[in-house]
Amino acid sequence: MEKLKMHSANLTQDNIARIRDLFPGCITEAKGEDGSVKLAVDFDQLRQELTESIVEGPQERYQLNWPGKREALLTANAPIAKTLRPCREESVDFDTTRNLFIEGDNLDALKLLQETYLGKVKMIYIDPPYNTGNDFIYDDDFAEDIEAYLRRSNQKDGDGFQLVANTEANGRFHSDWLSMIYPRLKLARNLLRDDGAIFVSIDSGEIQNLKRVCSDIFGEDNFLSVFVWEKRTSRENRKVFSINHDFIVGFAKDRNSYQLTRGLLPYTDDVLARYKNPDNDKRGLWQSVALSVQGGHGTASQFYEIKTPSGRTIPPPSGLCWRFTEKKLNELIEDNRIWFGVDGGNVPRLKLFLSEMEQGLTPHTLWKADEVGTTDSGKRELNELFDGISVFETPKPTGLLRRFIQIADKEKDGIYLVGPEIFVFSQRSVVVPAL
Question: What residue ranges define each of the domains in the chain, with the CATH number in brackets?
Answer without folding.
Answer: 13-55+62-75 (no CATH), 87-266+360-431 (3.40.50.150), 269-356 (no CATH)
